[in-house]
Every structure is written in C-alpha cells, then in structure tokens.
DNA sequence: CAGCGAGGCGCG
DNA sequence: AAAGCGCGCCTCGCTG
C-alpha cells in the first residue's frame, strides 16, 4: 500500500496548483469534516479531496474558490465521485453550491453493504479489512487527543476548531483517499456477484432520494407539543410521587427510605417479587425475574397495593416523554425535525431511521395519535400518507403461490379472515397466526403475542392444534419454506426479489439454536427484504414527479410513504403517487394484486383517523 | 467522564 | 419438540 501523499490547503494562492495537480483523474474521492453530524445545523470546516495518487485537505473559506472546478469535475459523467456514506456529504456539498449534483456517485459504504451486509461498514473497518491497513485514527481518536492536549474536561466540549490543523488535515485527506483506494476492489466484488447493475441503477440514485427526504423534515406544531409536555409531565410527576410514597421502606438501615426508582428494573423486581412476594411469570435472558409489560399486566390482577397499575401508567408516560416529546422539542430546528434515514441500516435491505428515529413514533391508541398530531405539514400544505396494504402477506402468497391467499387477494378479500375460516378460529387469532408464521414463532410465543394485545391467553393445546391446522390450510407455505431452506443451506444465502442477498452461513450450523434462528431469518428476510425492495423502487419512481407538484417526500416507515404537498395539488399528487406504488405489481410480475391507500391530513395523526 | 451490556419498549 | 423477524433509544448499573 502506498503512503498517503497529502497537502493542507488554507490559502487561496494554493488553489490553482490543487486543480493542476489533481489532473484528469476519473476517481475523485471527497469527504467533508464538519462541526457535527447534524446536516442542517452544522457547518463545513473543510473538505478532503483525493485521487489515486494524492490527497488534499482544503479548509473554509478557501474551499469556496475550488467549487466551480469541483462542480465541473463532478458533473463529468466519466468522473466517479467517491465517498463513504455519501448522503451525508451531499448535504454539505449542497450548502456550498446548491446547483451541484454529481453525475456519477459511488458510495463505498453502500457497496460494502451490498457485498456483505454482515460486515462492519465504518470506513476504518472496511479500509483495515480491504487495504490491510491498521491503526487508522477515528474522529473519536482526534477528539480524545485534542481533549488531552488542551485540557478539556468533557469530550463534547471539543470542536473541530480546537484540533491541531495538521492532524485534522491529515485525517480529512486520508478518508477520501481510502475510498479511492478501496473502490476498485469493491467494484470487482460487485461484478463478481452480479450486483453492479443494481448498485448503479438503484442504490446510487436512491442516495439522492434519501438526501432530499432528509432535508425536507417534518413540520412541528410546537405549541401542541408544549401542551402535551405540560399535561404529561404533570401526571408523570404525580405518579412518580405516588410510587415513591408507596414503595419507600422505613427503618434505619433501609436502602430506600425515599422510595424506589421506578426506572430501575432491579428495584422494581425486588419490590414486586421480594417485598410483595407476588408470583414470577417470566425471567429475563440473564435469569432475573422480569418486569416486562406482560409480567406487570399479570401482577395487576393479584396486586392489592395498586403499585402494578401505577407502574404501568408511569412507564407509558415516561416512554412518551423521554423518547418522543422531550427529544422532539430539543431537536426541532427552524420549526422542523430532521432525522436520518440510514440506507444500510438493516441487513434485510430495509431502511432504518435515527436521530430521531422517525420509524417508531407511536401509532396505536389515543396517546399515539396525540404524538402524531404534533408533526406533519406546515399550514398551506397537507401531509399525505400512502401505505401498502398487507405487503408482506401478499409477498408470501406470491412466493409460495398459496392458492387460498391468492384467491382472497384477487377478490379483494381479507386474508386474516381466510385464515380464520380455514383454521376455524376467530379473526384476531388468525391474524396472529399469520404473523407468527413469517416470524417463525412457536406456539408459546404465539400465546404471548395474543395475551400482550389484551386478548385471553389461549391454551397451549389449542395453540398447537391451530399451528397444525395452519399447515394443513396452506401446504404451499410449508413446501416453499422447505425449498428456501434447502437452497439457502446449499448457497449460504437467500435472495430478495431484486436478487439482493442475505448471507446466512449458519443455515449449516450444527447448533440447533443457531440453525433454527438462521432458518427463521431466511424465510423472513426474503419477505421483509423484498417488501423493502418494492418500496425502494416506488420511491425512485415517485422522486422525479415530486417537483411537478411542488411536493416533497419526507418519510418512509417500511410499508408507507409520507409527503408534504401543497393544498391544491394534494388530491392529484396522491393519485399519481399511489399509482406508482401499486405499479410494482406489474413491474415485478407479482401473482397477487398490490394495494396502496392514500390518506391526507394536516398532521401525521390526522391521517390515522379515517 | 466515557463506554457498554442488559432490560425494556416504540414501530413495521 | 420447540422455534419471534427487522430496527433505535431510553435508563440503569457497572467498569475502566
């Protein structure tokens, strides 16, 4: 491996030489160093630039003078603009010049993810594995060094401006250079595995779609959010005080003279199972008595102190406040919440979301609606939500060619009712049987599932019988699973509808546990991963028509897409977007009809009512 | 102070 | 015979 040959660029006079020295190379690595990870709030400190021979770190504001040249290079389709997690850098590239759109981007993180979704995807890890480099500094190392050098008390006090410029510059120049070094080998791997077309035609364009989604954000109705906080905080305090009062233990040597901490599971367990001596119904992975919701629910039937009901309500409010209400208030920036959608977040091919996670916002019950009613579209626009109806069940029916389900879907029927009729159970039992199947759950977990939703717990005898009858009702599902596992074991992977792979070497494990898990993952990954492929395809189709309606896509929650649309364009756009979503039926030649339902409202909560 | 695993829980 | 898929974030309690 060549040594890094790099240069720090801080003076305008150096710019012409950078352009000249870069030459006509067609591999252009780039990577921004910024004041933080917030793509809206944070600022560019400088940019690392690299070709296969050398690298530069160019600081602001001198970097501005390089932008026309950079744009010219990046707009040349023969030039590959290479980065690791390019979406992040696109945000900052746009800040420096809103008109830049690289014609040919390469994301080495996404490439590595396609090659092996199980590998660690951080630049340092990939570089160490692929280039045989070791001891590469991370940004965190830079922070630690700076903290020690300059005597900071805390890590979060250290900013990029405190760092030694030679150290930061070398680091900033190294990153894009590593990308340029890795790419030829990664490309070769993609070709070997026939993934290069998918990489260039789907995954790379998708980065722009995600980038635009992120910069759209969710409009926040801050007043409503503050009201929610006031109301829930009040009740939360009340419950906390009641709990402390109830659970304090008197006596000189008492550990809890002021009450127990309701957020501490060990303290909860001690209270319920030692002090009150109530029966233990579940144990944790580590063998401790569990205080999970279902356990508390059971306790509430026999607990006379009222503490079980107290903790139920406390937990609910605490979750809402600490995970949604307070973080949303803190993260609201210029009236919007900006989260991240992580392209490589899931091994199945789904997206994940973080900072904040916009894919796990409460959806059920009144409190869920209350949270969802604080985010949506700004006044003058509407929030549009379009969700696929039972996409995973439809894919299961398609893959396994399940006659009964194919007929149900063809007639616009209810698949859960079909299961109910065939198995001879009520609908909610059937619905859970359907879910249990593609998660690979057994009778015991199935019973837990039903009980958790507030229905009476079925007997194990009934559950086992229903499982058997389920198999009788859908023999194709059983045959398909068998075929999937046989092929998967032979190849060491399974594939989704777009031929993306999930590697599952453990299908050949001799450990019953490990192999069992891999088998459940194999079946689920085909269904879940293909559903992810379908919505990704739809998003790519919808993206170019957004501007015709001045609409913005702003969210994806696995089987649903969210948009902000001007009032007068809303109905028409909803119809077009819906058509694009259901078009996957023909494009992927599915054996079942695909349905997507659009709903309009001012906020996300309003789209859940009707 | 920083980092981590565990337990718990929100979503699809 | 028994077998829950995929995520991210919160707090606690412990370790270095």
Contiguous helical run count: 23
Low-confidence stretches: none
Q: What structural class do you assign from the helix and strand content?
A: alpha+beta
Q: Tell me, rounded to a whole number, the average pLDDT.
A: 96
Distance between the termini: 61 Å
Biggest β-sheet strands, sense, barrel: 6 strands, mixed
Rg of Cα set: 27 Å
Helix content: 40-55%
Q: Under CATH, the topology of the domain at 6-216 is which?
A: Nucleotidyltransferase, domain 5
Inertia-based shape: globular
The number of strands is 18
Beta fraction: 5-15%
The CATH H-level superfamily of the domain at 6-216 is Ribonuclease H-like superfamily/Ribonuclease H
The CATH level-2 architecture of the domain at 6-216 is identified as 2-Layer Sandwich
Arrangement of strands in the largest sheet: 1-4-3-2-5-6
Main CATH class of the domain at 6-216: Alpha Beta
């Amino acid at each position: 491996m060549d040594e890094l040959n790099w240069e720090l660029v801080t003076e305008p006079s150096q710019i012409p030489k950078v352009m000249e020295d870069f030459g006509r190379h067609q591999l252009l690595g780039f990577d921004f160093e910024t004041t933080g990870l917030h793509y809206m709030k944070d600022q560019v400190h400088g940019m690392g630039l690299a070709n296969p021979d050398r690298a530069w770190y160019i600081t602001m504001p001198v970097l501005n003078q390089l932008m026309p040249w950079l744009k010219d290079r990046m707009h040349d389709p023969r030039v590959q603009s290479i980065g690791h997690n390019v979406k992040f850098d696109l945000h900052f590239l746009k800040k420096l010049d809103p008109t830049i759109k690289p014609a040919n981007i390469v994301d080495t993180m996404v490439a590595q993810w396609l090659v092996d979704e199980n590998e660690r995807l951080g630049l340092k890890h990939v570089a160490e594995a692929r280039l045989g480099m070791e001891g590469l500094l991370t940004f965190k190392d830079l922070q630690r060094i700076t903290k020690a050098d300059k005597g900071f008390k805390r890590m979060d006090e250290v900013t990029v401006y405190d760092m030694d410029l030679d150290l930061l510059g070398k680091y900033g120049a190294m990153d894009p250079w590593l990308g340029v070094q890795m790419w030829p080998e990664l490309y070769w791997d993609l070709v070997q595995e026939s993934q290069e077309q998918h990489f260039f035609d789907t995954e790379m364009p998708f980065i722009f779609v995600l980038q635009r989604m992120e910069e759209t954000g969710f409009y926040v109705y801050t007043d409503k959010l503050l009201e929610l906080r006031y109301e829930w905080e009040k009740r939360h305090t009340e419950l906390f005080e009641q709990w402390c009062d109830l659970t304090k233990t008197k006596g000189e040597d008492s550990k809890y003279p002021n009450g127990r901490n309701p957020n501490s599971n060990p303290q909860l367990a001690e209270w319920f199972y030692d002090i009150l001596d109530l029966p233990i119904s579940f144990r944790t992975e580590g063998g401790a008595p569990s205080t999970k919701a279902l356990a508390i629910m059971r306790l509430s039937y026999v607990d006379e102190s009222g503490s079980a009901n107290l903790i139920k309500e406390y937990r609910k409010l605490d979750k809402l406040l600490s995970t949604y209400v307070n973080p949303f208030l803190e993260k609201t920036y210029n009236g919007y919440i900006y989260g991240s959608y992580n392209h490589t977040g899931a091994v199945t091919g789904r997206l994940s979301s973080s900072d904040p996670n916009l894919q796990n916002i409460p959806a059920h019950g009144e409190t869920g609606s209350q949270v969802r009613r604080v985010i949506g579209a700004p006044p003058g626009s509407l929030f549009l939500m379009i969700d696929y109806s039972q996409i995973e069940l439809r894919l299961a029916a398609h893959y396994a060619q399940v006659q009964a389900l194919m007929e149900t879907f063809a007639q616009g029927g209810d698949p859960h009712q079909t299961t109910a009729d065939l198995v001879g159970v009520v609908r909610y039992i059937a619905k859970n049987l359907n879910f249990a199947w593609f998660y690979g759950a057994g009778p015991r977990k199935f019973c837990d599932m039903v009980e958790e939703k507030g229905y009476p717990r079925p007997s194990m005898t009934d559950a086992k019988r229903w499982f058997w009858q389920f198999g009788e009702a859908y023999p194709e599902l059983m045959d398909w699973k068998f075929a999937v596992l046989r092929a998967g074991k032979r190849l060491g992977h399974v594939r989704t509808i777009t031929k993306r792979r999930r590697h599952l070497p453990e299908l050949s494990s001799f450990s019953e546990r490990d192999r069992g898990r891999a088998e459940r993952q194999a079946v689920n990954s085909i269904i879940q991963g293909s559903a992810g492929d379908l919505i990704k395809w739809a998003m790519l189709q919808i993206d170019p028509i957004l501007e015709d309606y001045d609409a913005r896509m702003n969210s994806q929650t696995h089987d649903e897409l969210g948009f902000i649309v001007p009032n007068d364009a809303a109905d028409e756009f909803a119809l077009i977007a819906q058509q694009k979503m259901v078009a996957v039926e023909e494009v992927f030649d599915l054996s079942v009809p695909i349905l997507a339902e659009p709903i309009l409202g001012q906020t996300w909560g309003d789209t859940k009512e009707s």
